[in-house]
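task queued by scheduler; priority normal; single chain, no ligands, no partner chains; default sampling; output format set to structure tokens
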Amino acid sequence: MLRKIPHFGHVLVDNLSLPRYWATAWTLLIGGSLAESTLKKKLTHIEAFYQHAEDGHEPGSLDDALGRQDISTVEGLLESYFVTLRNVPQIRSSAEERWRDAVAFVREVSERLTRTPEMSARLADVTLRLERLDRLYGQLRIAKRTNVHFARALPAAVLSELLESVLPGSSSNPFKSEVTQWRGYCAFLLLLHLGLRRGEALILRADFLKWERTATGRQYWLNVQTNDSEDDPRYSTPSIKTVTSIRQIPVSGIIADAFYAYLDNYRGEQNHPYFLSSMKRLCCTNRPCSGRAWARGKLTA
């Protein structure tokens, strides 16, 4: 059991209140570098392994096996402990931690013992057995990991309903202002169809669309690049995530036409160079859309 001794700290003791030998050695050699809460939790897990080892065996059997480096006995104790942790109706998350800490305790004590002169003659044999311990128990898991399945794409019905709600002029569009509807629609195209992050969309300049003539017509694209402007009026200046995010993104003709419609008919004349313009005014002029407004879901801001 776990006890706290004045001027020493936490220690494991047996049924006779005598310190558990190798657990105490582990506490002195390794536990001193741990936070008190972490040390208490690990010692509690090690105590559970001690109690399992003594269930049907002589008291002190684990300490004896570790001291002799009787790896065969230690392996048997670990195997039965693993089965005990697994053989319950409902496996708790703490069972995995108890198993990991028991294996680590055996490994760390054994590694320390191989450095002593008494064990030097058996060093090769013990090292091979420790490697076997790692192979046998290093990858075991008490509870099977559950694979979380994420939706890789929106279902067609959901996408159709979403598009209907942001389409300018739609009866299900929550915004009343035609300007706000078009700004929201362009933001939707930038984020969903072109895959831009919020900061990348907010730093797009009004002339972000590039094009060249090809044999089949116009080919459009946009460049995601850093914002080098020093006079951005926004309180929190948006930016791209990393330098590696600098890239070119192809734009279809239909989406390009929507961007041009917003630019020509709804963006209006602004004193800032950014594509998405806010409805809020500063010194009688509109401001560019801000990331803080987007975070609050206010496309009208």
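post-processing summary
- The chain is about 45% helix and 10% strand.
- Residues 70 and 290 are 67 Å apart (CA to CA).
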